[in-house]
Each structure stands twice: as structure tokens, then as C-alpha cells.
User: Fold this.
Amino acid sequence: MRVYGKRRKTRDVPLNATVRALLAAYLPTLPPVGQRDFPPGKSGHTLTERALGYVVAKYARLAGVPDLSPHDLRHRSGYRMEKSTGR
Assistant:
């Protein structure tokens, strides 16, 4: 998967077979207009970056994990992916 980041940087992120299969099943179910990474939930509104931060903070607090952010989760998942692929 090609990811576009800050200052027009791009990088390729490897996706394992499980993730590719899940995305292949999920992406056709999205509406053609207004596709989002985080589709509407109970409220019917799309989850914004700020709202995702609040959700992560809420469940981190309930789990007793201090100072956890979506960015921390991103780095942790990247670390785990790297370890599982043996790079």
C-alpha cells in the first residue's frame, strides 16, 4: 500500500495476506462518495482525527495505560509488523 505523508513524502507499507483479504472484502462495501478511513458509527458522523484521539484516550485511561495516543499505536503496530516479517 502506498502512503502519502507530510511534505509530499510517499512510502510503501507492506500488508500481509490477512489484511489484504480483509480490505478486499471491506472496500467494495464503502459508499462511492465520501469514503473514509473511519466510517460513521452510532452518531452517523464520520470519526475525525480528534474524535479518534478522544476514543483512544478514553480506553487507555480505562485500561490504566497513561499517555497513549493514536500515534503511539501506529508506531507499535509498525514495530510489530516489522518483527513479524523479519526485516
Summary: The longest strand covers residues 2-4. The chain has a mean pLDDT of 80.
